[in-house]
What does this fold into?
Amino acid sequence: MTFKFKKVGKATIRNPILIEGLPGIGNVGKIAADFIVDSLKAKKIYEVYSYNFPHAVFVNEKNLVELPVIDMYSARVKGQDLLLLVGDIQPIDEVSCYEFCDGVLDLVEKYNCKEVITIGGIGLQDIPTDPMVFCTANDPKMVKRYHSPKLRTDIHGVVGPIIGVSGLLVGLAGQRNISSIAFLAETYGHPNYLGIKGARAVLEILNKHLKLNLDLQQLDEEIGKIEKEIKTKIRQIESLQKGSSKKSVETNYIG
It folds into this structure.
C-alpha cells in the first residue's frame, strides 16, 4: 500500500474545484481549509491512509487513538461542487509527496476536476500585522481570474521553491491540463506560530471569488479554540519527530 483512498461517503460530484489546505508554515492552509469544511458543513467522502505517513497514532480528546489520515470532503455552493483536502499531516518524504499528489489528481480527474487551489504560508522573521497574500499558478488565466487589490502577483524573488503538497499539486496538475493556483500568505516563520491572520486574508479572497458566503467574524471568535486544537497536534507531531531520531525508548510514548 502506497496510498489508500478509502471511500467513506457518497456524493454526486461534477466538475469540482479542489481546495487543498494541509499543515505547513504557520498552518495557514490547514486553518483556512478546515474553516471552509466546518462553515459549509462539508461531507467526508474519502479517507487517505498510507505507510508513508508518520509511524504513530494521535490520542484524541476522548482518550482514544487515531491513525494519521488525510480527508477529502465534498460541498456544493451555488451549483459549484468543491472538494476539500484537509488533514493533520503531509507525506514524510519527497517521493511520497509526489506519489500522494499523483494519487489525489488521479482521483479528482474521475470527477472531471476543472481547477485546483492550494493554500500555504510564507515564513517571515517578524509577525506581520497585516499579512499580504501572494499567488502563483500554472496558467496565467488563473492569476487574472483571481485578481484582487489585496492579492500580490509579483512573487518571483519573494519565495524560493514551494515545498510540499501545496507546490507539487500546482505543478503536477499542469501536466494534466488542470488549471491550478497557489495562495501564499505572509506569516511568522516560527514552528509554533499559527498564521490565523494570513488564513483569514486568503479566505477573504476565496470568499469573494467563489461566493462561499463564509462568516469570517466566526473565525475571529473561534481563534482560541482553533489555537488549542492545532497546538495539541503540533506538540504530538514534534514529539514524534524527536522520538524518531533517537534509538532509545522514551517514557512519553509507547512503541
Remarks:
- The longest helix spans residues 223-244.
